[in-house]
Amino acid sequence: VTDSWRLEVLGARVSSGGGYAVAAFRDSTAYNTSDNGGGITLQGLYNSSGSYTNFATIQGIKENNTDGNYASALTFKTRANGANMAERMRIDSVGRLLIGATSAPLKWWNGTTFGNQLLVEKNNVNTAPTYVGMGNVRNTADGEGPQLGFGKSRGTASGAVTVVNNDDTLGIITFQGADGTNLVEAARIRCSVDNTPGADDMPGRLDFFTTANGSPTTTKRMSISCTGKITTIMNGVDYGLVVSNAHGSSPYGQFISFTGAAPDNNTNTFLNCSDTSTSRLIIYSDGDIDNHDNSY
User: Fold this and answer.
1) What sign does the CA torsion over 67, 69, 70, 72 have?
2) Strand bridging mode 230-234 / 237-239
3) Where would a tag sit more exposed on the chain, N or C end, judged by fewer CB atoms within 10 A?
4) Phi, psi (5° rounding) for residue 177?
5) Comparing C-alpha atoms, which of 27, 49, 29, 31 is closest to residue 40?
6) Spatial contact of 89 and 66, defined as CB atoms under 8 Å apart
7) Nearest CA to 221 among 230, 27, 107, 229?
8) 99 touches 89 (CB < 8 A)
9) How far is CA 46 from CA 39, 52, 56, 87, 253, in A?
10) In which order are the strands placed within the sheet that holds 183-193?
11) pTM of the entire structure?
């Protein structure tokens, strides 16, 4: 025992339930009592009178009131000034990390099956200090910015790098709203492998989905292929690009403009409409038009 610690527990670790410990904090409260379980309270002085109070607690709890069921969670509580302890975060019995919530409802994709490994939830709080639900800030003396990464392999263990296949999904961002019962998907952005991958070679495609009014599922509306080709989909038909203007008053139609100096000649192309082999219609920078078969 060293003099630098006010309390030190020294001994060989003991294995229990798959974990190791050298000390135990037991709660003798009845098994069917909510939040039954041992914990540690962290206290400190909070005023000039030398008064102590509770600042935070870490507690292992029984998640249920069922006899013989020891599914458990680890909870973390803090307190605001003038308030009691409130739970801020927990790791539940299946390893989910919950911030701002005590449970993870299975309500995604308009069902009762899909949940989440990480949940950040704001409940009836709309104040400036917590306005951004999740922040990712990078402070470095360079031109780099923060990143959000999605990774996919065909392996089954941590750290696996088993190669993916063509058309495998690499990541999805889904946008869902409550319909009064569950969360229903309104839109989705998906990244997929767009050709056969190889060493240092991962061709990708971005697909964009939206949900039509009255539909319970999303429909793919646009894709950007690994070659940069943009395909829009309307009524199940693939188009190269569809630009629609629903504006009901002037200006009508579409407006396409050079952003640099216009060359104003009949050699620099302004717009080229082509198939796989031949240019069918060309509009040059001076306004001249070249029609492939001179038919109007």
Assistant:
1) negative
2) antiparallel
3) C
4) -130, 155
5) 27
6) no
7) 230
8) yes
9) 22, 6, 13, 21, 68
10) 169-178, 183-193, 204-210, 219-224, 230-234, 237-239
11) 0.80
**Tokens (6 digits) for 163:** 């190669």
- Which two three-digit tokens encode residue 57? 């607690």
Chain center to CA of 12:
42
For residue 65, give both structure tokens.
């009131």
CA distance 121 to 119: 6
Using a 10 angstrom Cβ sphere, with 0-12 exposed, 13-18 middle and 19 or more buried, the burial of residue 229 is: exposed
Quickly tell me which residue has 């008064």 as its tokens: 51
**Alpha carbon distance 252, 246 (integer Å):** 9
Nearest Cα to Cα of residue 189 among 167, 170, 208, 168: 208
Cβ within 8 Å of residue 222, ≥6 positions away: 207, 208, 230, 231, 232, 233
pLDDT tens per residue, range 150-205: 999 999 999 999 999 999 999 999 999 999 999 999 999 999 999 999 999 999 99
In this predicted structure, what is the pLDDT of residue 2? 56
pLDDT band for position 3 (50/70/90)? Answer: low
Sign (positive/negative) of CA torsion 143, 144, 146, 147?
positive
Closest of 277, 294, 280 to residue 269, by C-alpha: 280
d(CA 211, CA 176): 10
Q: Which residues are bridge partners to 198 per DSSP?
A: 201
